[in-house]
């Protein structure tokens, strides 16, 4: 009897006595085990090919024009409705029309509606030919619950601007690695733009959607600190640390190979930041990276006296891999929040504390 192959894709022969039920059952189990292992290896290989293909064939969405329609969705937690209403006047100032997702006002516990409803809003906005950009109302939690159900072929066939951050990091990663679509890490409508004290500079960075421009991180916005000297260039990826860590072991595991990695977070104690960076370190994601752009870590302070500080934790992991790195960028849960495209080429001059990013639209 011929029994399957295994990881080395080798077949081997095992001879069993005839009419031996135990032997037949054992052969059946072994055969199915080896087949399952081969299928797992094939799936991993296909996923790797897809990721490499998406990197080399990035899809930039079409720029916006005055009068275009913007779709608003809430794929994570329920957004603040008052803030969302206030943000609409900002969109009017941009000269765009607004289409609200059917379930943006839904609430299902800590989610902005049931999974199938949030997924439907996402699909409907990508399928709608009139909608040229999709902006998330807020973050929170829930995007990872719908990632495996998304129709990525629909997105690839209808590429358009997709904008958000925080919990939206999971969607940025999944969409980019499955389709190659360039997405945007930026402030959201209810979480940021609709606040009464919304920062004017945060709003200004929406202008990058109307014209292909190279972005240079503005001097004087924040105090930057070189962690590791050197120059690095690569595709910009990353976002919220908690969400990056949560992709590990999933079909949407973040690919950091030869990439510039953006890292930010909020309300996480240093020990939690330590745990997540250690997970990325053990998964090889830090050593794979070309360099690091350390964004804002808002309120990431210890609650107990016996603790390492955030800077000590960041230094431990970032300096260990000795890749060019700068911290202090106003990217993330902060004000102002500088918006950046993900999936495009970026260059970091750590010694000069300069970050340059290719345009995200065409």
Describe it for me?
This protein is an alpha/beta fold and about 350 residues long. It folds into three domains: about 1-55, no CATH class; about 70-210, 3-Layer(aba) Sandwich (Rossmann fold); about 215-355, Glucose Oxidase, domain 1 (3-Layer(bba) Sandwich), CATH 3.50.30.60. About 35% of the residues lie in helices and about 20% in strands. It has helices spanning about 20-55, 80-95, 115-125, 145, 150-155, 170-180, 190-195, 200-205, 240-245, 270-280, 285-290, 310-320, and strands spanning about 1-5, 10-15, 70-75, 95-100, 130-135, 160-165, 185, 215, 225-230, 230-240, 260-265, 290-300, 325, 340, 345-350, 355. The strands form three sheets. Strands 8-16-15-10-11-12-13-9 form an eight-stranded mixed beta sheet. A hairpin with a 4-residue loop joins β15 and β16. α1 (about 20-55) packs across α6 (about 170-180) and α10 (about 270-280) packs parallel to α12 (about 310-320). The longest helix is centred in the first third of the chain and has 36 residues, at about 20-55. It is globular.
Key structural traits:
single chain, 362 residues, alpha/beta, Rossmann fold, Glucose Oxidase, domain 1, 8-stranded mixed β-sheet, 6-stranded mixed β-sheet, 12 helices, 16 strands, 36% helix, 20% strand, globular, disordered N terminus, Peptidase_S66C, protease, carboxypeptidase activity, Class_I_gatase-like, hydrolase
Low-confidence stretches: 1-14
User: How helix-rich are the residues, as a percent range?
Assistant: 25-40%
Radius of gyration (Å): 23 Å
Mean pLDDT: 91
Number of helices: 12
CATH class of the largest domain, named Alpha Beta
Q: SSE string, helix = H, strand = E? A: EEHEHEHEHHEHEHHEEEHEHHEHEEEE
How many β-strand runs?
Answer: 16
Secondary-structure arrangement, i.e. CATH architecture of the largest domain:
3-Layer(bba) Sandwich
Please state how the strands of the largest beta sheet are arranged side by side. 8-16-15-10-11-12-13-9
First-last Cα distance: 59 Å
Overall form? globular
């Amino acid at each position: 009897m011929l029994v399957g192959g295994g990881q080395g894709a080798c077949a081997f022969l095992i001879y069993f006595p005839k009419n031996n039920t135990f032997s037949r059952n054992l052969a059946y189990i072994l055969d199915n085990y080896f087949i399952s292992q081969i299928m797992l290896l094939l799936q991993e290989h296909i996923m790797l090919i897809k990721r490499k293909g998406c990197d080399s064939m990035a899809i930039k969405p079409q720029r916006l024009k005055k009068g275009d329609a913007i779709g608003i969705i809430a794929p994570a937690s329920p957004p603040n409705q008052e803030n969302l209403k206030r943000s609409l006047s900002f969109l009017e100032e941009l000269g765009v029309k607004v289409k609200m997702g059917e379930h943006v006002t839904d609430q299902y516990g800590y989610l902005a509606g049931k999974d199938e409803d949030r997924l439907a809003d996402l699909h409907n906005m990508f399928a709608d030919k009139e909608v040229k950009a999709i902006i998330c109302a807020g973050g929170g939690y829930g995007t990872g619950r719908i990632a495996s159900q998304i129709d990525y072929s629909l997105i690839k066939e209808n590429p358009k601007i997709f904008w958000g951050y925080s919990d939206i990091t999971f969607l940025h990663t999944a969409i980019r690695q499955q389709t190659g679509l360039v997405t945007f890490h930026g402030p959201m409508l209810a979480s940021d733009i609709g606040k009464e004290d919304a920062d004017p500079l945060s709003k200004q960075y929406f202008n990058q959607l109307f014209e292909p421009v190279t972005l240079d991180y503005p001097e004087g916005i924040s105090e930057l600190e070189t962690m590791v000297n050197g120059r690095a260039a690569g595709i910009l990826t990353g976002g919220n640390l908690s969400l990056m860590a949560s992709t590990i072991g999933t079909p949407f595991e973040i690919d950091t190979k030869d990439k510039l990695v953006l890292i930010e977070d909020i309300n996480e104690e240093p020990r939690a930041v330590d745990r997540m960076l250690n997970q990325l370190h053990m998964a090889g994601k830090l050593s794979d990276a070309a360099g690091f752009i350390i964004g804002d870590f808002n309120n990431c302070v210890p609650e107990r006296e016996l603790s390492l500080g955030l800077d000590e934790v960041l230094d431990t992991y970032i300096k260990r891999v000795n890749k060019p790195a700068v911290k202090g960028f106003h990217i993330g849960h902060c004000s102002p929040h500088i918006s950046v495209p993900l999936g495009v080429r970026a260059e970091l001059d750590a010694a000069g504390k300069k970050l340059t990013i290719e345009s995200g639209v065409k």
